[in-house]
Design goal:
Layout: H1 3-21, H2 33-50
C-alpha cells in the first residue's frame, strides 16, 4: 500500500467518523433564542426578588 493509498484510506475513515457523529434530526423550538433569553431574565429577576 502506497503512502497516497494509506492517506486516502485515512481520509475516508475520517469522513465516515464525522458522518456518523452528525445529527439525523434537529429540534425546532417554538421560541427564538431572544425569547428564551428574555424569559430566563424574567425568572432570574423573580428569584432575586424572592431572596
Amino acid at each position: 500500500m502506497t503512502t497516497e493509498e494509506r492517506l486516502d484510506a485515512l481520509e475516508q475513515a475520517l469522513r465516515n467518523m464525522k458522518a456518523a457523529q452528525e445529527p439525523t434530526k434537529y429540534y425546532t423550538s417554538k421560541y427564538s433564542g431572544e425569547e428564551i433569553d428574555a424569559l430566563l431574565d424574567v425568572v432570574a429577576a423573580q428569584q432575586t426578588a424572592a431572596e
